[in-house]
Amino acid sequence: AVDKPVNDGQDTYGKTIRERALTSIDELVTWTPPTGRNRLYSMIEARPDWVLSRQRAWGVPLTCFTKNGSLPTDDDYLLRNEEVNARVLEAFEAEGADAWYKEGAKERFLSGIVAPEDFTQVFDILDVWFDSGSTHAFVLRDRADGSDDGLADLYLEGTDQHRGWFHSSMLQSCGTQGRAPYRGVLTHGFTLDEKGMKMSKSIGNTVSPEDVTRQYGADILRLWVAQSDYTSDLRIGPEILKGVADSYRRLRNTMRFMLGSLADFTPSDQVAPEAMPELEQWVLHRLAQLDATVREGYSAYDFQGVFQALFQFATVDLSSFYFDIRKDVLYCDGDTAERRAARTVLDILYHRLTTWLAPVLTFTMEEVWLERHPEEGSSVHLQDMPQTPSRWSNPDLAEKWSSIRKVRRVVTGALEVQRREKNIGSSLEAAPVVYVSAEVAELLKSVSFADLCITSGIEISTQAAPEAAFVLEDTDGVAVSFAKASGEKCQRCWKILPDVGQHSHAGVCGRCDAALR
User: Fold this and answer.
1) What are the structural domains of the chain?
2) Strand 125-126 to strand 65-67: parallel, antiparallel, or no bridges (unpaired)?
3) Is the model's pLDDT at 122 over the cut of 90?
4) Among 5, 104, 23, 123, which residue's Cα sits nearest to residue 65?
């Protein structure tokens, strides 16, 4: 009975199985999602007595004998004999559980030890949930790796197991060990089709993991899980998988860009963070923010939160902003301090993104890792996530660059209008005028704002903006007037500058001439 005192000396968390279970649920176990706690607690709180046996024609036999004429309350009701147990164990190891049901089994196990005619062989089976709930005793205890407390870090299964495996494991362990067999329990929903319907072969709406892996690769299937809220039912189908594949391609392209830019990078090329331009220092600040997000997210099994943070960073902060700006420096500069700083940041990004994404994109990140570390025995899955220095965090710099990016967004919006109207084909054909307040002007003049906007030139003005200037409704105090860049197009960096053609190498600007020399 769950309310019967268990006199085994393990009453730290209660004297009965029920008390121990309820205490474990509240004090010893982390529930993901937290609603799992309430469900199991209410079930065990109101649970009636629990029997260990079932009367069925199949199952694992209880392998016990009862004494004829005794009552269940008598001390000698169950036969407790080590020699008998050894015989049963030997037979089961050799023949399996069927040995219990063979003709003459009682005499085989009892003869010569006790009188077979004094006992009745029990043919009840072990309750199947008690059977599965006992697995922790045989899987987790007496481990060779030194984990001798016999506790699982995590039990993971569907929501139906609150009344099944989670439940029976809890009660069995509380009865034998005095507490829950696990430190954490994670429950997930069930897989449905794109319309939210249960999958059925007769309907024809099933999605086979093997088919998905064959068409897209295993990482797409893993990424689908990471993108989903697994705490409720998950939907999957062709259109959903197409969206997942698109996310995957964008992440893969981010990694390809870094690999291409780091092909010959060596430790001697590294630049100290304090010597980097502000843009690189801002990237390091974002990494410091993400480091905490990733570690806390994985610890809480919040794979969706981790993936969304990394995907947003890789596609918005990196591909659409930092990479887009620094392509010019990486492709066109010679061995400049700015290029070395950019490649140092790319190396830092590489080591963090590969290890941060490895739990989700297992095969892809291994491929990315081996591109730079092909030595035998190398694997991203043998690497710890690098520690990110707290000094990289720079909230003041982040606030400054948030303001700069707001102005940049208005500039890119104005250039997009000109591109749609066929006035320009590339942003490098422009040299716009940006009207801002004196305070914002000081911020913009402290950086190379033309490079940030990927234009050949730019003018910062604190005068009143013309009525026809381009503005965005959600960005006050910023207006942009379009103007074309003057000069010739550099055949190497494609910027339109007045000095093109005035250097030792024909058709290039001063910077490119120096790089060629």
Assistant:
1) 17-52+130-188 (no CATH), 53-126 (no CATH), 244-393 (1.10.730.20), 396-486 (3.30.2320.20)
2) unpaired
3) yes
4) 123
What residue type is 7 in one-letter code?
Answer: N
Contact 483, 472 (CB under 8 A): no
Identify which of 119, 60, 63 has the alpha carbon closest to the alpha carbon of residue 90.
63
Closest CA to 172 of 162, 183, 160, 180: 180
Tens digit of pLDDT for each residue in 239-255?
Answer: 999 999 999 999 999 99
Question: Max alpha carbon distance in the chain (Å)?
Answer: 115
Residue 119 is inside which H or E element, if any?
A: strand 119-121
> Beta partners for 484?
430
Q: Let me know: does 91 contact 109? Beta carbons within 8 Å.
A: yes
Above 80 in pLDDT, residue 429?
A: yes
State how far Cα 132 lies from the chain centre.
29
Q: How far apart are CA 279 and CA 271, in angstroms?
A: 14
Portion of the chain with pLDDT greater than 90, in percent: 80
The string of pLDDT tens digits covering residues 310-343 is 999 999 999 999 999 999 999 999 899 999 999 9
> Is-contact 356 293, C-beta < 8 A?
no
pTM tops 0.90, yes or no: no
User: Which has more pLDDT, 501 or 49?
Assistant: 501
Is 436 within 8 Å of 409 (Cβ atoms)?
Answer: no
Which amino acid, residue 187?
T
* 499, 509 contact by CB (below 8 A): yes
6: left (phi over 0), alpha (psi -120 to 50) or beta: beta
Q: With contact defined as beta carbons under 8 Å apart, do 193 and 236 qualify? A: yes
